[in-house]
TrEMBL record:
This is Cytochrome P450. May be involved in the metabolism of insect hormones and in the breakdown of synthetic insecticides. It comes from Pristionchus mayeri. One of its GO terms (cellular component) is endoplasmic reticulum membrane. GO terms for molecular function: heme binding; iron ion binding; monooxygenase activity; oxidoreductase activity, acting on paired donors, with incorporation or reduction of molecular oxygen. InterPro entries: Cyt_P450, Cyt_P450_CS, Cyt_P450_E_grp-IV, Cyt_P450_sf, Cytochrome_P450_Monoox. Its cofactor is heme. The keyword Iron-sulfur does not apply. Heme binds at C443.
Amino acid sequence: MIGEFALALFAAFYYLPWIFKGIRDYLYEAPYYKKLPGPKGLSFIGSAFEVAVGEDTTAPLKFWLKEADKAREQGHDIFTVTAMGRHIAFPLSGESVKFICESNEEILKGKDYEFLRPWVGSGLMLSIGKKWKDRRRALTHVFHFTMLEGYTMTFNKHARVFVDILSKQSGTVVDMEIHLKRLSLDSALNTTMGMDFGIQHNPKHPYLASVDIFTNYAQRYNNEPHMWINWIWYLVYSREYNDVLKKLNDFSIEVLAKRMESVRKGEVDLEAKYKPLIDIFIALCNKGECTYDEVHYELNASIFGAHDTTSSTLTWIFWCLATQPQHQQRIYDEMTEIFGDSDRDCTLEDLQEMDFTERFMKESMRVFPPIPTVGRELMSDFQMGKYLLPKGSEIFIAPHIIHHNPDVYPEPWKFDPDRFLPDNVIERNPYDFIPFSAGPRNCLGQKFAMHEMKIIMSHAVRNFVFTTEHDILDQECKVEVMCKPSLGCHLKVEKRK
Ligand code: HEM
């Protein structure tokens, strides 16, 4: 008891400057927010329990869409909320979100991202200013066409393992979410670390368990708004949270040490045409452009950025596939045109031919965007169209809101891949479709992800038919860090003859 009291006292003192800053920021921001559209609620706490996930993980997205509709009816292009002292603005259309996406100055990530910092460090994902610019420039070529060619081999390899595993379950109902998660973790680890960890064959791999536990903590953080107050989080969860962080960090430190040893022995060629991310970072270190200590954080960031995002997106894509047999057949026909009845690997050229498949995937990401929000914390007062937002407040770029804007997408819940026909795309503001965010700080792995997902689709649809008795909208979107289907994704998988 005395120990806990002492710990609480220590935490309170430790976080005192943070508490003062919170109060000062709140007092500065509140007068601006009084004048902006959106639910007012209690002061300070505001709509925290609607914005946060809480017990019903489908509630926040419903709340956002409801508030978005209300604000649009009143002729506004944003709505705002207060939540545990935080002030947050949600742009409602491509027109208004463009201001923040295009800004080269306002690129500081939102307050929620602090949760990730002990895992992903202060590199590309969370830095700003010169450090971010240099790191972004150094890594942009990783996702260049030539490098993607190399990753294509890796994607094909893991997609084949996925097909083998599903083949053994043909005729049964399969939990696709689990299999897609293992598949995308295999790909992310292989392209990042340069090693095949075989997670699909070894689902008890400790790294997978640690990633799951970490995601679970992120989920608790989302669920419980009082956890946004750092010292409460520290008191309740710090021990277990630090424990899992240590495991995740030890893993990448160990892999990095082994790889550097291989480089020293001349077993790895840092000049190779195709190389995993780890080699690119080791080369940067050798040139003095980053420290070895930073590398394992960048590797963690890449795995984090690449795996849960891709697997959640794919889960929705497979859901859309199984619930719409007519589109599934059309994708199969497109694959047959490209591959005939061959089981060969996909090449980069094949991917360019997958017109309908791409439109279908984009429509899946429009209706069910995998990332609920991307936050920005304003470093200066910011004019977003006709709205002046105060320094220190946040903007949530929410694809879910932008993608369901009925003024841009009539019948927004209707699934129609033709919305992505070139003539229709040209009619829209480019910021009306932002699953990868947009602007200078958009997703660096966008092409990489699209290639990977198309390759997986191509192997899956050539080999299987996916069905379910559900309708597409039987699912709701729940927020579990990513947006996930509330019913999971249990599909009947049958091998094609
Ligand atoms: C379908 C899968 C993916 C989706 C939906 C997605 C989406 C996003 C989004 C919304 C952001 C935030 C951008 C912002 O702050 O404005 C982001 C950032 C990022 N993503 Fe992705 N991502 C995906 C896959 C990947 C993959 C496969 C990689 C790497 C191989 C990757 C690497 C990154 C990086 C490095 C950033 C940080 C960029 C920066 O801050 O400059 N992503 N992603």
